């Protein structure tokens, strides 16, 4: 039995692998795109095959044993150390409480509304900055600590483009660093919710706004990363992707490593998370930790759907084209040219080669379905953001298209906490959506506070009379019966 709190002795040989030309580079410094061809990188452990010396059963025992660890380095995503970024020392690892987010089965009422569909939400909004981005940041910042230690660096400036969640996570982890990692975030002006904007400001990051959308911000930070000494923290940073693989590992562990009959729904956005999740499942399959791959469904809004359009075409007719985005309540989905699309294509091909046709699919949903998916989930005890609503809308659409069976268990990725996007709920209840969203609220779904008694009555009545009058109004509204 492995010792629960013992930090792993294994050290891998990580290298950047270019999906464009196949070039390989060492990890002594940060790379984002291939110097040779400009292609997107994956990070691979050149020593991965040595992990096969342990059986799948042995690995399951290792990870299950670590689940009770009290060592900060192993409590979070690095419980799965050997599968992610096994080059760091224990002192490098940052832990702020990320990972181990709960999987909450849907209520019987919600399941019944969806034809008896078995389903659950994985609440990644219960990460420290209230989104899944903390998984990637924990890995990226741990590697920055590793670089500072091994290269004796004085300071690193970390930058990112964001629609909200990335900036909140980057600023949070930078604020925890020892002062040698500074943080600057670049946001699209007016397109980040007040709640999300408050997070990097509160963490002390330099917040810079750019007119336009996320894609415009991304071009700015790419230019900075190509020409200046900065650490890019967007999903072009392959260390970020490694950290997000922990989502797949946790789902597998929650279901006792049995993923047969499971379907994972993931909003695509910049395509980093769906890339990481497929990569994580494939790693576990290769090591025999799991013996069946779950099906993976990517979901996109019709206001930002380039990946859906690519896979909607017949294989021989597929061509990649970015799209111009329109406003979306799932703000992280407002990306018309996802950086990680080459990674999606790479892993989707590998996935289908093992699990067969239909093991990876992309569905398109409307903005109306996304916001109403969020409202539906949260009226049944969940804390889903609009991206989680996008996943529920994707499940409903997959059922309409007969792509999923009610007996399959659908695991929906609620990427952030509902409170980050509460303004969209208010807009729905108050019917104040701009026309560009294409959303027409259903009054039956609205829920607004009701005034029990007019303020003037409080001034007119004696205190005891006021209490009785208020109580009587409540009785009439709720239809209460006397004892």
In short:
The protein is α/β, with parallel strands linked by helices and 483 residues long.
Summarize the structure in words:
- The protein is an alpha/beta fold.
- Among the domains are: 103-129 and 241-443, Rossmann fold (3-Layer(aba) Sandwich), CATH 3.40.50.1100; 450-483.
- 39% of the residues lie in helices and 14% in strands.
- The protein has helices at 56-66, 72-75, 108-113, 133-151, 165-176, 194-202, 214-227, 238-244, 246-254, 272-286, 306-312, 341-355, 367-378, 386-400, 422-430, 455-460, 463-478, and strands at residues 14-18, 24-26, 41-45, 103-105, 118-123, 156-161, 181-188, 206-210, 231-232, 262-267, 295-301, 360-365, 409-414.
- The chain has a 6-stranded mixed sheet with strand order 4-5-13-10-11-12, sandwiched between helices.
- The protein is globular and about 75 Å long.
């Amino acid at each position: 039995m492995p010792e629960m709190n013992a930090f792993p002795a294994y050290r891998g040989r990580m290298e950047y692998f270019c999906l464009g030309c196949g070039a390989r580079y060492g990890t002594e410094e940060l790379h984002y795109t291939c110097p040779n061809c400009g292609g997107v990188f994956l990070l691979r452990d050149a020593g991965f095959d040595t992990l096969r010396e342990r059986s799948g059963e042995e690995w399951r025992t290792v990870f299950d044993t670590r689940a009770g660890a009290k060592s900060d380095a192993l409590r979070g995503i690095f419980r799965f150390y050997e599968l992610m970024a096994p080059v760091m020392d224990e002192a490098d690892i940052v832990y702020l409480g990320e990972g181990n987010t709960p999987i909450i089965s849907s209520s019987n009422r919600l399941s019944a509304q969806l034809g008896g569909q078995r389903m659950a939400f994985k609440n990644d909004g219960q990460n420290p900055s209230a989104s899944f981005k903390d998984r990637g940041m924990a890995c990226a910042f741990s590697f920055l600590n590793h670089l500072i230690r091994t290269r004796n660096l004085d300071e690193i400036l970390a930058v990112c483009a964001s629609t909200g969640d990335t900036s909140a996570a980057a600023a949070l982890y930078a604020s925890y660093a020892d002062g040698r990692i500074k943080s600057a975030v670049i946001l699209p002006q007016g397109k980040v919710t007040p709640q999300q904007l408050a997070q990097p400001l509160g963490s002390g990051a330099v917040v810079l706004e750019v007119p336009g959308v996320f894609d415009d911000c991304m071009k700015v930070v790419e230019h900075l990363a190509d020409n200046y000494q900065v650490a890019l923290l967007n999903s072009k940073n392959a260390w970020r992707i490694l950290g997000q693989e922990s989502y797949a590992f946790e789902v597998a562990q929650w279901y006792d490593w049995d993923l047969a009959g499971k379907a994972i729904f993931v909003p695509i956005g910049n395509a980093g998370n769906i890339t990481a999740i497929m990569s994580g499942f494939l790693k576990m399959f290769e090591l025999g930790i799991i013996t069946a791959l779950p099906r993976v469904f990517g979901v996109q809004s019709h206001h930002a759907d380039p990946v859906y359009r690519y896979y909607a075409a017949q294989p021989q007719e597929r061509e990649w084209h970015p799209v111009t985005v329109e406003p979306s309540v799932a703000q992280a989905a407002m990306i018309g040219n996802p950086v990680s699309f080459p990674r999606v294509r790479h892993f989707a091909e590998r996935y289908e080669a093992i699990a067969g046709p239909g093991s990876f699919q992309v569905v398109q949903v409307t903005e109306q379905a996304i916001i109403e998916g969020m409202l539906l989930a949260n009226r049944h005890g969940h804390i889903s953001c609009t991206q989680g609503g996008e996943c529920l809308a994707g499940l409903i659409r997959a059922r309409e298209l007969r792509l999923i069976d009610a007996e399959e268990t659908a695991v929906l990725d609620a990427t952030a906490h509902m409170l980050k996007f509460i303004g969209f709920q208010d807009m729905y209840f108050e019917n104040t959506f701009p026309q560009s969203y294409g959303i027409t609220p259903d009054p039956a779904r609205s829920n607004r506070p009701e005034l029990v008694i007019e303020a003037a009555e409080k001034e007119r009545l004696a205190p005891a009379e006021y209490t009785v009058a208020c109580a009587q109004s409540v009785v009439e509204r709720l239809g209460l019966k006397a004892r």
